């Protein structure tokens, strides 16, 4: 599994990389919208973890690019903000899969990502063609 972490705090970005690696998840870090956009346009990701407040804009702007470029890639928002407590982000952006506070435990967020990825892999593929007994 490959993950893109969009986080402007260098120390927190490195912590994300370390925790994701322990969970067996390969990850890249982008420190701003420009860097994240470049990575999304040139690489495929299984999941994106994004902060909202970035130095060059709002991290939610990337959900539109991601929905166009990689429509099956879920976005996990990790934010210090508390103004989205009623689930507003889910109605604004269809590819947001979860919203966590930055105070949440890294292992819990990793477990959520692993669970969601495992569920995606277990989805049944297209039903096999069936033939009638009469024909």
TrEMBL record:
<dbReference type="InterPro" id="IPR050595">
    <property type="entry name" value="Bact_response_regulator"/>
</dbReference>
<dbReference type="Pfam" id="PF00072">
    <property type="entry name" value="Response_reg"/>
</dbReference>
<feature type="domain" description="Response regulatory">
    <location>
        <begin position="2"/>
        <end position="117"/>
    </location>
</feature>
<keyword id="KW-0597">Phosphoprotein</keyword>
<feature type="modified residue" description="4-aspartylphosphate">
    <location>
        <position position="51"/>
    </location>
</feature>
<dbReference type="InterPro" id="IPR001789">
    <property type="entry name" value="Sig_transdc_resp-reg_receiver"/>
</dbReference>
<dbReference type="GO" id="GO:0000160">
    <property type="term" value="P:phosphorelay signal transduction system"/>
</dbReference>
<protein>
    <submittedName>
        <fullName>Response regulator receiver domain-containing protein</fullName>
    </submittedName>
</protein>
<dbReference type="InterPro" id="IPR011006">
    <property type="entry name" value="CheY-like_superfamily"/>
</dbReference>
């Amino acid at each position: 599994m490959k993950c893109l972490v969009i986080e402007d705090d260098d120390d927190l970005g490195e912590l994300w990389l370390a925790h994701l690696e322990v969970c067996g998840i390969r990850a890249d870090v982008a420190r701003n919208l420009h860097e994240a956009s470049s990575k999304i346009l040139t690489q495929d990701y299984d999941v994106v973890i994004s902060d909202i407040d970035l130095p060059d804009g709002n991290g939610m702007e990337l959900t539109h690019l991601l929905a166009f470029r990689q429509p099956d890639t879920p976005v996990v928002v990790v934010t210090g903000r508390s103004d989205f407590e009623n689930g507003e982000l889910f109605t604004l952006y269809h590819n947001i899969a979860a919203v966590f506070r930055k105070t949440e435990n890294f292992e819990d967020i990793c477990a959520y990502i692993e669970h969601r990825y495992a569920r995606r892999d277990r989805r049944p593929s297209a039903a096999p063609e069936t033939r009638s007994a009469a024909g």
